[in-house]
Inverse folding.
């Protein structure tokens, strides 16, 4: 087992740091919930970082490292679906950015206001819908990502794919949730550590109270677990690993997010404090694909086919 | 302790409450902040007052009805069942802890002047306890009041003062003895919010509204006789009464509302994966209801005890679990998430439940030290 980035991965991450540095990314202004950066999204598309999984010399794991790193930024771009799901389709058959939906193609979907393709997992088949942006109704959301929905499919090109492809897309969607989630958790924890180190109450740094230390330690343990489960899933690309990683991340989100906000007090509940850059997005992921219990069931099915 | 067993009297009261609510619930949902919120809340409070449904347990001499806690519980049950506007609105501070504090610690003049105004929907109250450097450590507060003749001159800053931007009065805790430290030398004041020298800055929260505010005081003058509640230098004792109400019975309506909402989740749940979690939630809700009722009944005619922290904490953490489950059940963007009763707002606002009125950590300290009698730790 090798837990260190290999030469390719180091080169990718170094290049990505350069791109991030050049972008001079500004977090959203005070009071703005939506944290999508069109500039970053455009730059990432042009740079090729989102196509790594398609390249012969790179792997899905390399792409996952890109997703994880970008999740740690205070703004989002449509990264995870492009980097981890799109590889399942020939490059000339689908156009990014992507949005994903379960079941109902008219349901609200993350990134749909900026998407060119909507993938709809309907269990036994997959719908590929070419999105006309003028047909998307934006949804005012409290969850930082751009959300939208289609009023109807009339006049839109809808391609139907089989159950195998639907299952593969579902698997990679789970992977995307897990990888992005672990990156978001890391930045959220970093923000809180800085706060409880510098904020004094009762003449002590908040971080010196055991009640806080213990729960932050547990949060750090969960984040590390989430990270390794997500990276293992990217390495194996197996049904069981992807479902398990997504289940773990979704299961960890409520406790972790509440604890992290708790440690920042009322300040942490405002848009003037940076924690929401990551926790809004984590909370948005909580219910996707039916939530943690559905992923856990899928992991059990994939692992113990007969018993499940 | 009396138990609110069904009786003819309570059944009749319940029918009366239900009938009034059905005829009077506002057609539109409540704005969450700003001047529209003020108008909405005052109008709704006034309507309840005129209908005889405000201040049920408050003394009738001050505009209340001097009814029993059991009747109050029945009213809250019917209130929650009817889908009436959330009580967690701009009238919350006045009705649930400023008013009860004045009843417990105020002068006759203060009671006669302020209590009817609160109940009849004439005024909004806000709280001025926390400061930028004094959150959980409330006793470290630094906002000062200099006594000059029969006035106190206030200088300093408060934060997390919900609805201060639309408030008429503030329950304000300041340090009036310049040589004092910690809990000593504090004074609890009624501060009119339109006085010269007060500046209010709303802060936008994650849940959407800008209901939290910073308040700055620059040489603000208040008259001692009208303003001081509980005596100069006795502010900590008065503030503890306020917090006892805030941590004790203030959230009773919200607790009953949560139980009602969890039952609605149960009715809507067809997902076999979510059902076991919902079963746990229903058990928690039943426990919360029992604890809340027992505590409220035992607090009748008095200031709630430290046991209120057990319920406050239980309720706050249950709110979070319930809103998480609702998101799983309905999914982002569902109709059930919209509006002031919607789960999306609850989902994000539930964070504040374990912070306001003393964080969950402070509540746990209170439970450990004052309920269980454990040794005090070093602060």
């Amino acid at each position: 087992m090798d837990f260190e980035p290999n030469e390719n991965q180091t080169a990718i991450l170094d290049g990505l740091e350069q791109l991030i540095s050049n972008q001079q990314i500004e977090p959203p202004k005070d009071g703005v919930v939506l944290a999508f950066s069109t500039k970053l999204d455009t730059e990432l598309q042009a740079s090729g970082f989102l196509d790594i999984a398609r390249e012969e010399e790179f792997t899905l794991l390399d792409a996952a490292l890109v997703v994880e790193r970008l999740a740690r930024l205070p703004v989002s771009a449509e990264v995870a679906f492009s980097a981890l799901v799109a590889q399942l389709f020939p490059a000339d058959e689908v156009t990014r950015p992507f949005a994903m939906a379960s079941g109902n193609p008219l349901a609200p979907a993350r990134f749909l206001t900026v998407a060119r393709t909507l993938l709809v997992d309907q269990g036994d088949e997959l719908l590929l819908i070419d999105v006309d942006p003028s047909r998307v109704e934006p949804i005012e959301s409290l969850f930082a990502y751009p959300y939208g929905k289609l009023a109807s499919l009339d006049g839109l090109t809808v391609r139907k794919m089989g159950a195998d492809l639907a299952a593969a897309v579902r698997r990679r969607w789970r992977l995307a949730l897990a990888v992005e989630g672990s990156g978001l958790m890391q930045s959220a924890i970093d923000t809180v550590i800085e706060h409880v180190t510098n904020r004094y109450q009762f003449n002590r740094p908040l971080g010196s109270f055991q009640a806080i230390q213990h729960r932050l330690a547990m949060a750090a343990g969960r984040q590390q677990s989430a990270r390794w489960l997500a990276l293992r899933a990217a390495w194996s690309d197996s049904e069981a690993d992807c479902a398990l990683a997504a289940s773990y991340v979704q299961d960890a989100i409520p406790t972790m997010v509440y604890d992290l906000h708790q440690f920042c007090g009322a300040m942490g509940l405002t848009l003037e404090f940076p924690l929401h850059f990551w926790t809004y997005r984590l909370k948005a992921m909580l219910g996707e694909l039916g939530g943690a219990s559905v992923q856990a069931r899928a992991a059990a099915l994939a692992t113990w086919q007969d018993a499940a | 302790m009396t138990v609110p067993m069904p009786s003819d009297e309570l059944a009749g009261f319940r029918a009366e409450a239900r009938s009034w609510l059905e005829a009077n619930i506002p057609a539109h949902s409540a704005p969450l902040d700003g001047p529209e919120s003020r108008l909405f809340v005052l109008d709704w409070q006034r309507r309840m007052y005129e209908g005889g449904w405000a201040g049920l347990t408050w003394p009738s001499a001050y505009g209340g009805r001097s009814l029993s806690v059991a009747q109050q519980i029945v009213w809250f049950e019917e209130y929650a069942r009817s889908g009436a506007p959330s009580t967690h609105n701009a009238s919350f501070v006045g009705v649930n802890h400023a008013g009860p504090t004045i009843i417990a610690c105020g002068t006759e003049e203060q009671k006669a002047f302020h209590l009817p105004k609160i109940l009849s929907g004439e005024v909004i109250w806000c709280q001025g306890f926390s400061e930028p450097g004094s959150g959980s450590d409330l006793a470290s507060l630094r906002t000062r009041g200099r006594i000059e003749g029969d006035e106190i001159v206030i200088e300093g800053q408060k934060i997390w003062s919900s609805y201060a931007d639309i408030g008429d009065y503030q329950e304000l805790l300041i340090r009036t003895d310049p040589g004092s430290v910690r809990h000593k030398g504090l004074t609890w004041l009624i501060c009119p919010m339109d006085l010269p020298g007060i500046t209010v800055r709303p802060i936008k929260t994650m849940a959407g509204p800008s209901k939290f505010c910073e308040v700055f005081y620059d040489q603000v003058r208040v008259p001692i006789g009208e303003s001081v509640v509980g005596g100069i230098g006795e502010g900590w004792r008065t503030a503890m009464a306020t917090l006892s109400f805030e941590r004790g019975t203030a959230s009773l309506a919200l607790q009953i509302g949560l139980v009602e909402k969890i039952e609605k989740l149960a009715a809507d749940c067809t997902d076999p994966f979510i059902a076991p979690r919902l079963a746990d939630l229903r058990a928690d809700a039943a426990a919360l209801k029992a604890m809340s009722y027992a505590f409220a009944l035992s607090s009748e005619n008095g200031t709630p005890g430290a046991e209120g922290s057990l319920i406050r904490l239980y309720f706050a953490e249950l709110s979070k679990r319930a809103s998480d489950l609702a998101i799983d059940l309905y999914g982002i963007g569902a109709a059930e998430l919209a509006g002031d009763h919607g789960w999306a707002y609850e989902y994000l606002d539930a964070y504040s439940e374990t912070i306001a009125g003393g964080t969950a950590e402070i509540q746990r300290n209170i439970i450990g030290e004052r309920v269980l009698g454990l040794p005090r730790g070093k602060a």
Observations:
- The mean pLDDT of chain A is 93.
- The interface with chain B takes residues 30-31, 33, 107-108, 110, 139, 141-143, 147, 149, 200-203, 209, 211-212, 254, 258, 261-262, 265-266, 268-272, 276, 279-280, 283-284, 286-288, 290-294, 297 of chain A (CB under 8 Å).
